[in-house]
Amino acid sequence: MPVSPPASHAPFYDPGHFQPQDSVGYLMRKVLSSIRTQADARVATHDLTYAQWLPLYKLSHGGETTVACLARDLETDPASMTRALDRLEAKGLVVRERSTTDRRVVQLALTEEGRTVAALVPAVLSEVLNGHLTGFSHEEWQCLLGMLRRMLANGEALRQQAVHPLDTPR
Question: Average pLDDT for residues 123-133, to the nearest whole number?
Fold first, then answer.
């Protein structure tokens, strides 16, 4: 996937005229902050914070269930993840189980109550996201998803170039 625009297109941003309020990154961060704030307000009725409901929801989908893997997947540090999991464990929503094959590994699992609470998250996120998409047509929503996926792919290509700078054509 292309990382830079085709030669016929001028760059979108010019350092001499850069305005933060027009930055895609700034706007995406503001939108994410708004989504998180609205979702937090709704899950607060269940005595949860963003730092707690996000790993709870992630654990409900299976996959990696160690603190390190969860922290990496949710882009937070292991210490913060451990604190959030400590709180979830104190609330009876998560349990830690030592691996039977490797005693050094501690797996995380939802309790029955944890599964019940995690099941509430999709409705909250759907309500919040739909609120943020008010006035968008179905086609605009699909276009936005496609553009964001393209940006992620371009970002991954940039990351790969940084990891393997000699592999890129000059």
Answer: 95
144: Cβ contacts below 8 Å, ≥ 6 apart: 136
User: What does the pLDDT read at residue 79?
Assistant: 92
Q: What does DSSP assign to residue 75?
A: T
Which residues are CB-contacts of 14 (< 8 A; sequence separation ≥ 6)? none
pLDDT of residue 92: 96
Task: Give this prediction's pTM.
Answer: 0.78
Q: Which residues on neighbouring strands pair with residue 95, listed in sequence order? A: 109
- Nearest residue to 58 via CA among 90, 94, 112: 94
**What is the overall mean pLDDT for the chain?**
88
Instruction: Please report, for residues 120, 130, 141, 167, the alpha-carbon distance to residue 126 in angstroms, rounded to integers and kept in the order given.
Output: 10, 6, 14, 42
Token readout for 39 is 């979702």
Strand partners, 107: 97
Between the CA of residue 122 and those of 41, 51, 63, 108, what are the distances in Å? Answer: 15, 16, 18, 21
pLDDT of 49 higher than 60: yes
